[in-house]
Amino acid sequence: MRPSAKKYNTMYKKRVLERDSYLPRRSPKEIIQCSGCGAFYVRRRWTLSLPGGFSNPVQAHPIYCPACTKTRERFPGGELHLVGIEVADRNEIARILRNEEERARQKNPLERIMRLRATNGDWRVETTTEKLAQRLGRSVRKARGGKLQYKWGHNNKFVRVVWEQRRE
Ligand SMILES: [Zn+2]
């Protein structure tokens, strides 16, 4: 990695991880809605549904939640690498990934699949959080067997989960 890219990463993480410092000032009853996915920012967290007692979203310009920001800037928090997927298993594995993402998203709208790149039986699934990459890996293993490996980044933050279909 080039030194400038590394510096950018560090600054980016700081900005995203600092408690939503880029959100505009507003009164406690006012809420914010993400211009990308429509999630609401209420009581210091992001949620898919709007609780009662809150006014309509206020914002003067487009605002994006941390998950949409990561997607727009192509900065994944985790990656699941699926190695050696059999042709007969592809639909089933795609379905497992979609279902698991949907379940995770109901609990936390910031957990999302950003991108899936498939080259034959070799898939790379980019996720907004490392937790989701692990969760997707576990559900694929549970359904299809095989083995999982976890590869941590030097900053202990980014994780690549590698799943391999066992072939004997
Ligand atoms: Zn969003």
Tally of helical runs: 4
Structural class: alpha+beta
| Bound compounds | zinc ion
Distance between the termini: 38 Å
Number of strands: 8
Describe this structure in words.
The protein is α+β, with helices and mostly antiparallel strands. It folds into two domains: 3-72, no CATH class; 78-164, no CATH class. It has four helices and eight strands. The strands form two sheets. Strands 5-6-4-8-7 form a five-stranded mixed β-sheet, covered by helices on one side. The protein is elongated and about 60 Å long. The chain binds zinc ion (ZN). Zinc ion (ZN) is lined by residues 34, 36-37, 39, 64-65, 67-68.
Task: Kindly summarize this structure in a few lines.
The chain is an alpha+beta fold and 168 residues long. The longest helix has 18 residues.
Topology:
Elements: H1 3-17, E1 32-33, E2 40-42, E3 45-47, H2 66-72, E4 78-83, H3 90-107, E5 113-119, E6 122-127, H4 130-144, E7 147-152, E8 159-164
Parallel strand pairs: 4-8
Antiparallel strand pairs: 1-2, 2-3, 4-6, 5-6, 7-8
Zinc ion (ZN) is lined by residues 34, 36-37, 39, 64-65, 67-68.
